[in-house]
Amino acid sequence: MKRIALFLFVIASVFAILVGCSNSDSDSKSETNDKDKLIIGIDDTFAPLGFRDENNEIVGFDIDMAKAAAEKMGVEVEIQPIDWKTKENELNSGRIDLIWNGYTITDERKEKVLFTKPYLKNSQVVVTLADSKLAKLDDLEGKVVGIQALSSAGDALNANPVKDKIKELTEFDTNVLALTDLKAGRVDAVVIDEVVIDYFMTKEKDTFKLLDESLAPEEYAVGVKKGNEELLDKLQAALDEMNEDGTAAEISKKWFGEDKVLK
Questions:
Q1: What does the pLDDT look like over 163-211, one tens digit per residue?
Q2: Do 75 and 235 touch, CB atoms closer than 8 A?
């Protein structure tokens, strides 16, 4: 009798384990493969890629790209503003599915996330006030320079010898705050994405100027959580289709006046 009871107990235990594994696999699949909504993490002050308009609506080039890609993938999209300093943590914790807002490919970030193919070129440039005497990178010696915290602007500056000559480096939560301090005279220059400052210079004519030399060329891509190659492949297929059918070019012309998307 004891043997029969033990046998039945073992059978029941094995069945419970199998059911648990099946449910676990199903849950994992629903989390990675069968999502009906993608949550996109953005910096909502990063114009013209993702920012709030006069009606407080989140708009921009990357926003339109994300919505178009989601439509081709057959899923809904939710735009989620995040603290840009914690973007990889937000992704790896599962609170967002993609980092998509002028996200520069770097070797350090490749250790943390998967990247799509690059879709847009950019450069890190130095901006100052239009009436400033600063003209070239060497003029930053002894000056106070601002950057957005934990952005690729810091990487570009650190890779240039001028970094050791500046008086002080001030970090800001957003580029908007950095430019505000520049206009107030609290910093002498700001290292910033060329795509971003080009937009601001069209809005605030005669306020800013760029130094003659840029710091570093770079490329933007979308960040996907490591281990989620299936989502990466589906997203890349959608982006490829957008290039082929002209959707990406149309979005680029809307925001930049020309087709800047990498093919």
A1: 999 999 999 999 999 999 999 999 999 999 999 999 999 988 899 999 9
A2: no
Pull the structure tokens for residue 9.
């107990």
Per-residue pLDDT tens over the stretch 134-148? 999 999 999 999 999
**How many angstroms separate the Cα of 85 from the Cα of each of 90, 91, 201, 209, 260?**
10, 12, 25, 27, 27
Name every residue whose Cβ is closer than 8 Å to that of residue 143 and which is 6 or more positions away in sequence.
134, 166, 167, 188, 189
Amino acid identity, residue 140?
L
Residue with the two structure tokens 């130094």: 211
How far apart (Å, rounded) are the C-alpha atoms in residues 166 and 126?
13
> Residue 52 gets which letter from DSSP?
E
Average pLDDT score over residue span 234-238: 98
- Identify the structural domains of the chain with CATH numbers, from first to last: 36-119+221-256 (3.40.190.10), 122-218 (3.40.190.10)
- As a whole number of angstroms, the distance between CA 198 and CA 103 comes to 17
Q: Give me the chain's average pLDDT, please.
A: 89
174-181 contacts at long range (C-beta below 8 A, 24 or more positions apart): 174/43, 174/45, 174/46, 174/84, 174/148, 175/45, 175/46, 175/148, 176/45, 178/146, 178/147, 178/148, 179/127, 179/208, 181/146
- Say if strands 98-99 and 189-193 run parallel, antiparallel, or are unpaired: unpaired
